[in-house]
Amino acid sequence: MIEGKPVSAVVTQGKTSSDKSVLLQPDSIATIGSVVEINSNSYIMTDFKFEGINEIYPTGTLKICNSLFPIQTNETRVLLRDEFGIVVTDERGRPVYTTEIVAITTPCIVQSRYSFTSSEKQITLPDGRIEIVIKYTVSENLREGYEFEMYGENYMIANIDPTGVIDSKGILVISAERKV
Questions:
Q1: In angstroms, rounded to a whole number, what is the distance separating the alpha carbons of residues 165 and 114?
Q2: What burial class does residue 3 get, using C-beta atoms within 10 Å of its C-beta: 0-12 exposed, 13-18 middle, 19+ buried?
Q3: CA–CA separation, 88 and 164 (whole Å)
Q4: pLDDT tens by residue, 56-93
Q5: Is residue 131 in a domain?
């Protein structure tokens, strides 16, 4: 499934156990950043070829998601209720509203090492830092200084790299550092 829609595709193993390649049917729609479900595992499409030789059968490169990142959606206006579930009213009998922030999680790729694509060498990120790759999303909490919990530790977003986003599609690379 790509973005929750069933798709027929040929899936092959990539260079490592966490990578896969997917050969899609000609009418399939996918982009870099698409979330792909294969055998109850989530993957993020990190590369997508759909021009030239791949124009007939688009080809994508997938990397397995190893965690979930908390995304804050818009505030929702809801009726304020008391402990018995009865709607609270003001002195004129009008219902009282409150705002509620809805939080969801999105599959992400978390790594503590950075790979160079031209050579398979990896460098370790400084101690206490992680790199998170997520599908491009607009959210209030995707900003520098936002604190979140992952792997039982508290982290703070240090930087967000939007260079993998074109026309509101793609991936965001978030650099985070552990809070002491």
A1: 19
A2: middle
A3: 47
A4: 888 899 999 999 998 877 677 888 899 998 999 999 99
A5: yes
Same domain flag for 37 and 53: yes
Q: What's the domain count of the chain?
A: 3
pTM for the complete prediction?
A: 0.77
> Of how many residues is the chain composed?
180
pLDDT in tens, 114-139: 655 555 555 556 678 899 999 999 88
